Amino acid sequence: MTGMKADLEAARERTVEDVVGPGTAVMFCGINPGLYSAATGRHFARPGNRFWPALHLSGFTPRLLRPSEQHLLPSYGLGVTNLVPRATAKAAELSAEELRLAPARLTRLACEAGLEVLAVVGVSAYRVAFGRPKAAVGPSDDMIGPARLWILPNPSGLNAHYTLPALAAEFRRLRETTTLPETAPPS
């Protein structure tokens, strides 16, 4: 195996630490780490993933952050986690049972962090994890602990249904409903 391919295969089953801090108001929740993210230890790290551009274009961050700057998210009142912590090459490798375990863990996280919103990034995975087969992108009537639930499209480059501007528009809909810190760290 070549170096990068071997590194990716070695990342299978690894986890990526949650990014959360005092004052985290909005926690973005991916489906699970891909192998590239697990190999680097950074959320949404694969080149071509549109999470970081959508975060910036929607007004959540004053500039485009790189995955290596994920540690800055709590200073903006933001955090990142996953429905399922273990890394796989494709989300399709996850079982429905694994996804259905997510709400209990996320409820604990929402309560501990005092979240305002948990934004699940991926409507299909949300439907399975939360038992809501008709869920659609946008706000949910459900709560998770103290947090409102919001469903966003998956920012993976494989989700061709959403262009970057359309993805950013959905992130912006959420941004317009949240209370975040007035001051942001230097860019």
TrEMBL record:
Domain Uracil-DNA glycosylase-like: 18-175
Entry keyword RNA-binding: no
Protein name (database record): G/U mismatch-specific DNA glycosylase
Organism in which the protein naturally occurs: Sphaerisporangium dianthi
Keywords (A to Z) from UniProt: DNA damage, DNA repair, Glycosidase, Hydrolase
Regions that span the bilayer: none
Domain of life: Bacteria
The protein's enzyme class: hydrolase
SUPFAM superfamilies: Uracil-DNA glycosylase-like
Presence of keyword DNA damage: yes
UniProt cross-references to InterPro entries, sorted A to Z: MUG/TDG (IPR015637), Uracil-DNA_glycosylase-like (IPR005122), Uracil-DNA_glycosylase-like_sf (IPR036895)
GO molecular function: hydrolase activity, acting on glycosyl bonds
E.C. no: 3.2.2.28
